[in-house]
């Protein structure tokens, strides 16, 4: 289906931008945000084709099915309703004929009461009011709250929040060093409450606390959809916050998995975050496709990955506080759309979703932008920037940040011709062969595509909108690719083999059946002193 589009990928972006009104025409605005995709080689004809692809893949019908609680995660037999977690002012949402909203609102109210108790010092540790919170979780039980807590640091007025995810003991050791167990609250966050990294870290944290506190379990809370297992771990039910199987791990920061964020910024700002997500849901459900930000973000993504054949895309937030957003989007996008078969189990006849990577600007500029500007692989860039920062006394910093962001997209598009490079070298005093040689290195091919998402300021509401925007983008791309964006079977094999490997490494089993490379690595580990 991409052939007709592939034939149309040769346009020069700078030429397209000479068309009157292209910038506004190839942009979508919503509630103080502007998504500009005019610096891509997408022509009007290409866009029309992309929109017809969305229509023929029944994106609107699938969207309605998701919001209606149908079991669109077919391989796990589950509904996909993370949107219900932010549906504060909406109507009922039914799964199997049951309205889930009373349960969602009740859990939110419990989280809020607990967060206020902690923040206001009514819930205390053995040594007094809680000063520090450690969230122990991994993947979807880690990346969202960690990303969001860092993103919204100007709104922090609660305890300090720390995040431990890796089973590497270095992670928890570095976190615990310097913390007082008597004023620390530990949240064990795991949807399944079986994830080996999380359970190992949770036990280590409990042992650490037990050395200083008579009743360590009293300073533990749990977030999980396996409440029987939280009880086995010894966490009292009043500090267990559950969620249902219709919330996928990487879509879960809107519910109890967001507890550390709520503790940091307070329930009111957490609600503003939820309302931002709900506003994006409303927009996604009602705006016509061409004015629909998630739909156009998705179609631009597919244009680059499937029509142009660019294998990766970079997400480049010009916001240091969004430094974990690329990692968050990696899970959201690659765990969702990195699949090899269709919903029916047939091999995909095209590429799956692209590799997603990135770093905040301006740091990336001094590292990998070299390749983006002059490498032979084209990397579509998704820039993101707030017009205003949070530091009124540092506006000159923010102005420079924005200037860099805008300049990068311009430079990528414009490039620098050989004639321009020659002129520059002439001015610098070069001549003859040396001038030619030097000039060649200073040519930028240009015509490198980028999009920019620009907004006023990174508030809790804005963050909610951005996260929901990308969630729906992933959904639309998944529907068009015909895959299930809501399972993650690809993580299972490694987990199973790690379980097998542990007794081999310890010497309890010999590992004779393993391949030569693996046996060699095992021998190295066993031989290390
Ligand atoms: O929340 P948990 O059950 O501990 O799962 C944590 C993470 O690990 C799994 O392996 C999945 O790849 C992720 O989707 C999930 O978010």
From TrEMBL:
InterPro entries: G6P_Isomerase (IPR001672), G6P_Isomerase_C (IPR023096), Phosphoglucose_isomerase_CS (IPR018189), SIS_dom_sf (IPR046348), SIS_PGI_1 (IPR035476), SIS_PGI_2 (IPR035482). It catalyses: alpha-D-glucose 6-phosphate = beta-D-fructose 6-phosphate. The active site is at 335 (proton donor), 366, 495. Keywords: Cytoplasm, Gluconeogenesis, Glycolysis, Isomerase. This is Glucose-6-phosphate isomerase. One of its GO terms (biological process) is glycolytic process. It comes from Roseovarius indicus. Coiled coil: none annotated. One of its GO terms (molecular function) is carbohydrate derivative binding.
């Amino acid at each position: 289906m991409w052939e007709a589009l592939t034939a149309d990928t040769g346009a020069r972006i700078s030429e397209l931008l000479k068309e009157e009104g292209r910038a506004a025409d190839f942009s979508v605005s919503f509630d103080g945000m502007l998504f500009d995709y005019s610096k891509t080689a997408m022509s009007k004809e290409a866009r029309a084709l992309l929109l017809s692809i969305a229509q023929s893949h029944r994106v609107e019908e699938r969207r309605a099915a998701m919001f209606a609680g149908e079991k669109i995660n077919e391989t796990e037999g589950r509904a996909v309703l993370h949107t219900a977690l932010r549906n504060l002012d909406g109507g009922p949402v039914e799964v199997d004929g049951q309205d889930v909203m009373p349960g969602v609102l009740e859990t939110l109210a419990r989280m809020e009461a607990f967060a206020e108790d902690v923040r206001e010092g009514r819930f205390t540790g053995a040594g007094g009011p809680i000063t520090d919170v450690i969230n122990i979780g991994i993947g979807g039980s880690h990346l969202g709250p960690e990303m969001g807590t860092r993103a919204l640091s100007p709104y922090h007025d609660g305890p300090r929040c720390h995040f431990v995810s890796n089973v590497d003991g270095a992670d928890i050791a570095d976190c615990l060093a310097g913390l007082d167990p008597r004023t620390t609250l530990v949240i064990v966050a795991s949807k399944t409450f079986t994830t080996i990294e999380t359970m190992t870290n949770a036990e280590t944290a409990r042992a650490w606390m037990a050395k200083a506190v008579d009743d360590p379990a009293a300073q533990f809370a749990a977030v999980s959809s396996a409440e029987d297992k939280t009880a086995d771990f010894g966490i009292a039910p009043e500090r267990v916050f559950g969620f249902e199987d219709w919330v996928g791990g990487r879509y879960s920061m809107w519910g109890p998995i967001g507890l550390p964020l709520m503790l940091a910024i307070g329930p009111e700002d957490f609600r503003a975050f939820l309302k931002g997500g709900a506003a994006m849901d409303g927009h996604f459900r009602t705006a016509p496709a061409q004015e629909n930000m998630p739909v156009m973000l998705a179609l631009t993504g597919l244009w680059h990955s499937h029509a142009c054949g660019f294998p990766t895309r970079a997400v480049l937030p010009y916001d240091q506080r969004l430094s974990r957003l690329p990692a968050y989007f990696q899970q959201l996008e690659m765990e969702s759309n990195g699949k090899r078969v269709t919903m029916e189990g047939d091999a995909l006849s095209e590429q799956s979703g692209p590799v997603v990577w990135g770093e905040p600007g301006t740091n990336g500029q001094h590292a990998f932008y070299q390749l983006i500007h002059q490498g032979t692989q084209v990397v579509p860039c998704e820039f993101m920037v707030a017009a205003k920062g949070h530091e009124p006394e540092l506006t000159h910093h923010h102005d420079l940040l924005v200037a860099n962001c805008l300049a990068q997209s311009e430079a990528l598009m414009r490039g620098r011709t050989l004639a321009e490079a020659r002129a520059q070298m002439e001015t610098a005093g070069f001549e003859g062969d040396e001038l030619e040689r030097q000039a060649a290195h200073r040519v930028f091919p240009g015509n490198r595509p980028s999009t920019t998402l620009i907004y006023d300021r990174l508030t809790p509401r804005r963050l909610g909108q951005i996260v929901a925007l990308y969630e729906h983008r992933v959904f639309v791309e998944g529907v068009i690719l015909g895959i299930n964006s809501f399972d993650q079977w690809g993580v299972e094999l490694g987990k199973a083999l790690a379980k097998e490997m542990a007794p081999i490494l310890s010497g309890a089993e010999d590992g004779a059946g393993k391949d030569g490379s693996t046996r060699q690595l095992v021998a190295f580990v066993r031989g290390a002193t």
